[in-house]
Amino acid sequence: MSPLPPAVPTSRQAPADARADRLAALPLWSHPLVRIVLAAVACFSLAVVITAPLEALPQLLLSLVALVAALVLRNVAGRLPTVLMVLLSATMSLRYMSSPGRS
After folding, report:
1. Structure letter (DSSP) for residue 65
2. Within the chain, what is the greatest distance between any pair of CA atoms?
């Protein structure tokens, strides 16, 4: 089986890709304090998403957001989308493993 070809940006995606590249190239991201603060915010956000109980409609919306994220990420080339999809899968699985009262 041959691997999927890399995603080809459309004319609408090209300006967004250029903006993302400019943002990623900022020297701000190499500062250790910025990295520590972003890692702390990411860990806190992940803990909230995993442990916060949700009613049916917000749970459905979270599932739809996760599905859309997975569908978008599958078209991106490289290892980062694979790592992000594993993280997304683990996050959604941990929601059910850590929820009290579910069996």
Report:
1. H
2. 49
DSSP 32-44: HHHHHHHHHHHHH
Q: Which helix (H) or strand (E) holds 19?
A: helix 13-24
Amino acid, res. 103: S
Number of domains observed in the structure of the chain: 1
CA distance 47 to 26: 28
With respect to residue 42, please indicate whether it lies within any of the assigned structural domains.
yes
Whether 9 maps to a domain, the answer reads no
Q: Angle CA(89)–CA(12)–CA(28) in degrees, nearest 5?
A: 65
- Decide if 21 is inside a domain: no
Q: In this structure, is residue 45 part of a structural domain?
A: yes
Instruction: For the chain, report the end-to-end CA distance as a whole number of angstroms.
Output: 39
Q: Along the chain (103 residues), what's the average pLDDT of each consecutive run of 10 residues?
A: 54 69 83 93 92 90 92 86 90 82 53
Question: What pTM, to 2 d.p., does this model score?
Answer: 0.62
